[in-house]
UniProtKB/TrEMBL annotation:
SMART domains cross-referenced by the UniProt entry: Aamy
EC number assigned by the record: 3.2.1.-
Protein name (Swiss-Prot/TrEMBL): Pullulanase-like glycosidase
Source organism, top-level taxon: Bacteria
UniProt feature, compositional bias: Basic and acidic residues: 525-534, 543-553
Keywords associated with the record: Glycosidase, Hydrolase, Transit peptide
Disordered, as annotated region: 1-23, 525-553
Length: 756
């Protein structure tokens, strides 16, 4: 969820009501600015020639060449939409069902000044697509924008013929290369130089869902701090330098917060201490859906952002890591009626946005507007966009922000059979891509476990997060539900398998793990919203002191709780997701909505990693253990049955004594044994026990399967909290002492008495 603000406009909306963009130096024009149209001398020359021109696909065709404002144009191809370099020039194709006039504005790449304005001739229109090819244009020597006009009183229309607009299908955007500076966006044509990237032998890892260990990170924040020790901090290239760390940790999939072009300067809030403007650092406010964020490029010149992102993906694949993009199709950076007119609003407002009968923006996203996702035109746009990233950038999957909005119909109500979700699930180009839904929205639609999956969609399991947190801090009525979460939430995903559940304890929204054990309340004053923003209940506990402390008992208890959360997460069936830096105690100083903090609050402090090598080692060993034991990575939910020839059920539940679980409202003990027997007769058995009580508990595990004995993998109550996978020391038994608020994992290993 993108919880950015409680104001009507929203920090994620662009909050640009007060922004008045002006022409840049040297006559540069700013997309969205209110400036007079430049006069065009572009009447078609009388007796236009018949010339041999090339279509958008490069094939020759006969078309009449016309001269407009000194440029030669011919009839264009309506597909693909956007600007496409051809053998003879550049083909431009823009769709609008309501526009009556479309003008192509050619801009100088250096200054942004107008080189010429070319109206799309009416007879070049194909259906609702304005299409023409401008002959002889060099993609490296021209940028472009659009002017669009239409009936002023059409329902929902917000045409502004004086505004320069971005092409929604622009593959690259210029003007936002300098992070933190107000962008002057212009469309940039992806020429031959942008499409000849050498992918070599790049192959998607295509890991089974059950084998995934996802690591969520912010491209800039991950290496922006000096402590990262990289040559290009805060960039795609800087992240590439950290791949050895990711491999050593053991994760095999990175989920990147938004990398679509966005305007980080749109935030209208200010630092309450210094008065300095805050940024929208997270990027959940897209401007260019096909364009990578240029401010993340170490070398933003030409196609630097595209090239560096591809180099990052290629390097991650070579290291065995998948790449998932966090994508935002629920709203845009244009905000509500007070926001800037940048693209969709000025091209076809009523098609792209959900509107009230009075023409105002529906706000199911909490950020000012809501995309009309199940309109056929918007569905096509979203599918085109995802295919482009999958094909052009070799992306392995997508996590959809506030995905429940994608299930709303054109009237805003939830649909039983949303065509967009079905289309994406069955799209042949996306067949190898993961589709992960944040299955709720900002208007109260909560679909965790009921999101329309079509056999394909995975979900961020918000109930996993909430249940695990509630249990570990000792809230009542949590033990029984935790049992379901540990085995992949069969109550939510019956028939869909454990891979449908992306389990997590923390993510970019809310507290980091270190803050979850250190704060009872959010501390968001730095966001400039008087503490009103962010969630109200993170099910957190400060363990006796709010914030940092030197008290050794509190620090020890916080350390146990941190390890408890990580251990249970990585021992659960389903797909685990870690938040970057949780493995070494990253803090946001109690800020649970740090979208506007481009500073030490959100930058990963790698010095902390040097001070928490024990916790990093613990996480690495838990990941190794998980990958070593198929019983923790089951694709199907265990049913509690005992198959023929097995000594134990697939899963069994226990308490202080074997086979006697306590599901009472006040229970603070959950113990499970996962067991399976392979076709070759080998068994894989793991016993997990978690004590959320303030006192120690004595637990007697069931006997290990015949021919094996229990060995101790992890005990969060001990200084050496986890062993190396395969080197677990024997456990004498028969009783297991669980320290107050601790968790223990035993594994059955052959004892040499018989062949197993």
């Amino acid at each position: 969820m993108t919880r950015t603000t409680t104001s009507a406009v929203g920090a994620g909306s662009g909050a640009a009501a007060s922004r008045t963009q002006q022409a840049g130096r040297g006559g540069a024009l700013v997309v969205g600015s209110d400036v007079p149209a430049v006069a065009s001398g572009g009447r078609p020359a009388a007796g236009a020639d018949e010339r041999l021109a090339a279509g958008a696909d490069g094939r020759p065709e006969i078309s009449a060449v016309r001269w407009v404002d000194g440029f030669r144009i011919v009839r264009g191809r309506p597909l693909p939409l956007g600007a496409t370099a051809t053998a003879t020039g550049i083909n431009f194709a823009v769709a609008s069902a309501t526009a009556t006039r479309m003008i192509l504005v050619l801009l100088d790449p250096e200054r942004g000044s107008v080189l010429g304005e070319i109206p799309f001739p009416d007879d070049y229109r194909v259906g609702d697509v304005f299409a023409m090819t401008v002959l002889g244009l060099d993609p490296d020597l021209v940028h472009y924008a659009l002017r669009v006009d239409g009936p002023a009183h059409a329902p929902g229309a917000r045409f502004d013929p004086d505004a320069l607009l971005l092409d929604p299908h622009a593959r690259l955007l210029a003007g936002g290369e300098r992070w933190g500076e107000r962008p002057r966006y212009r469309g940039k044509v992806l020429g031959a130089a942008g499409s000849d990237f050498d992918w070599g032998e790049d192959r998607r890892p295509r890991l089974p869902a059950a084998d995934l260990v996802i690591y969520e990170l912010h491209v800039r924040g991950f290496t922006r701090d000096d402590s990262a020790g990289v040559d290009a901090p805060g960039t795609y290239a800087g992240l590439r330098e950290k791949i050895p760390y990711l491999r050593e940790l053991g994760v095999n999939c990175v989920e990147l917060l938004p990398v679509f072009e966005f305007d980080e300067t749109e935030n209208t809030h200010r630092d309450p201490t210094t008065g300095a403007p805050l940024l929208n650092s997270w990027g959940y406010s897209p401007i260019g859906f096909f364009s990578p964020k240029t401010g993340y490029a170490a070398d933003p010149a030409e196609d630097g952002a595209a090239r560096e992102l591809k180099e990052l993906v290629k390097a991650l694949h070579a290291a065995g890591l998948e790449v998932i993009l966090d994508v935002v199709f629920n709203h845009t950076g244009e905000g509500d009626h007070r926001g800037p007119t940048l693209s969709f609003r000025g091209i076809d407002n009523a098609t792209y946005y959900l509107l009230t009968p009075e023409g105002y923006y529906q706000n199911y996203s909490g950020t000012g507007n809501t995309l009309n996702c199940n309109h056929p035109v918007v569905r096509s746009f979203i599918a085109d966009c995802l295919r482009y990233w999958a094909v052009e950038y070799h992306i392995d999957g997508f996590r959809f922000d506030l995905a429940s909005i994608l299930s709303r119909g054109t009237d805003g109500s939830p649909m039983e059979n949303p065509p967009l979700l079905e289309e994406l699930a069955h799209d042949p180009v996306l067949a190898d891509c993961r589709l992960i839904a944040e299955a709720w929205d900002a208007a109260g639609l909560y679909q965790v476990g009921s999101f329309p999956a079509y056999g394909r969609w995975m979900e961020w399991n918000g109930r996993y997060r909430d249940t695990l947190r509630r249990f570990l801090v000792g809230r009542p009525d949590s033990a029984g539900e935790l049992a379901a979460r540990l085995v992949g939430s069969p109550d939510l995903y019956a028939g869909r398998g454990t891979g449908a559940s992306v389990n997590f304890v923390t993510c970019h929204d809310g507290f980091t793990l270190a803050d979850w054990v250190s704060y009872d309340h959010k501390h968001n004053e730095a966001n400039g919203e008087d503490g009103r923003d962010g969630g109200e209940d993170d099910a957190s506990w400060n363990h006796g002191h709010e914030g940092p402390t030197d008290d050794p008992e509190i620090r020890a208890l916080r350390g146990r709780q941190t390890r408890n959360a990580l251990l249970l997460l990585l021992m659960s069936n389903g797909v685990p997701m870690l938040l970057a830096g949780d493995e070494f105690g990253r803090t946001q100083q109690g800020n649970n909505n740090a979208y506007g903090q481009d500073n030490e609050i959100t930058w990963v402090d790698w010095a902390a990693a040097a001070g928490h090598t024990d916790l990093i080692r613990f996480v690495r060993r838990c990941i190794d253990f998980r990958l070593a034991h198929p019983v923790l990575r089951r694709a199907a939910h265990p049913q509690g049955q005992t198959p023929p020839g097995w000594q134990y059920p697939e899963v069994s539940w226990h308490g202080a004594r074997p086979w006697e679980p306590d599901w009472s409202p006040g229970s603070s003990l959950v113990a499970m044994m996962l067991h399976e027997k392979a076709d070759d007769g080998r068994t894989d058995t793991v016993f997990v026990a978690a004590n959320a009580h303030a006192e120690q508990r004595i637990v007697t595990p069931p006997a290990a399967p015949a021919g094996t004995g229990w060995h101790l993998f992890a005990d969060t109550g001990r200084a050496q909290a986890a062993a190396e996978a395969g080197e677990e020391p024997a456990w004498a038994g028969p009783e297991l002492t669980l320290t107050a608020r601790s968790a223990v994992v035993l594994v059955a290993r052959p004892d040499g008495s018989e062949d197993t």
